[in-house]
Amino acid sequence: MRSLRYILRRRKTDEFSTYAYRWLYSRAQYLHHRSQSHIISKSLFGIFRSLVEQYHRHVPIEYLCGSAMFCNRLFIVNRHVLIPRRDSETLIHHVQELYRHNHDVQSMLEIGTGSGCLSITLSRLFPHWKIDTCDISSSALRVARNNAYLHHCHNIQFHRGNLFDTRFLENTSYNLIISNPPYISQDQVSACNYGIFHEPSIALFANPPLKFYAEIIRRAINGWLKDQGYLVFECSPFNVMSIRELLKPDFEQIEIRYDENHLARVISAKRKQKQPLL
């Protein structure tokens, strides 16, 4: 029998690692349906040791614990979805600003929903909205549906589909489109931390990096986005100005928002009103 305190003494740990070990210990207890005792049985210790070893191989602790916090809400996560990050909360805050004084029913589409953290958070903030979300991954949609159930969201519809399929979501239009599409290019891979390589590559990497932005903008112009509707992207600080150039011909009121690290993280634009034919 070994206590958690004993294990922490045996390992040289900093404050963050000690915090992580306590989370992993709680996860191991949950997996074995044990009580919240500070004594670890042999079988429980084996699970705990396995989790710690994975943690030291840079597997994100959110995957090991099966959950992550986003906008003060707990979301289920696994290796099929990106881990929600504080950077993405910038998009939520910006949408709140855009619709602070607008109490009408809005229709919204999220492209590439992943865990569903963006749509679900907005669903809780704007329960009268009608929200569609889509993803190419059925495994990701399963996680998103579970999170919607967890947070009692009844105004979200989930769709599986490919953005580049011309028949996908035909004859539909929305007041608001949001997306955090893949945007990491090959030349940026070396700057990524090790943990990111455990996340789904289909949700991270794009070649060329503006591939998904350009297609979403094209689909928005061709009918997905209503006149005077908003398009809101999460983006990399490295490509925000390039996205701005893509938006200029058909959009106005282009705004850039910065995250808590003062990096450009969100760009939004309002679709121009169609001019009547003379």
UniProtKB/TrEMBL annotation:
One GO term of the biological process aspect: methylation
Catalytic function, reaction form: L-glutaminyl-[peptide chain release factor] + S-adenosyl-L-methionine = N(5)-methyl-L-glutaminyl-[peptide chain release factor] + S-adenosyl-L-homocysteine + H(+)
Gene Ontology molecular function, alphabetical: nucleic acid binding; peptide chain release factor N(5)-glutamine methyltransferase activity
Keywords (A to Z) from UniProt: Methyltransferase, S-adenosyl-L-methionine, Transferase
Pfam families associated with the record: MTS (PF05175)
Protein origin, superkingdom: Eukaryota
Annotated InterPro entries: DNA_methylase_N6_adenine_CS, HemK-like, N5-glutamine_MTase, SAM-dependent_MTases_sf, Small_mtfrase_dom
UniProt-recorded name of the protein: peptide chain release factor N(5)-glutamine methyltransferase
Enzyme Commission designation: 2.1.1.297
Span of domain Methyltransferase small: 89-189
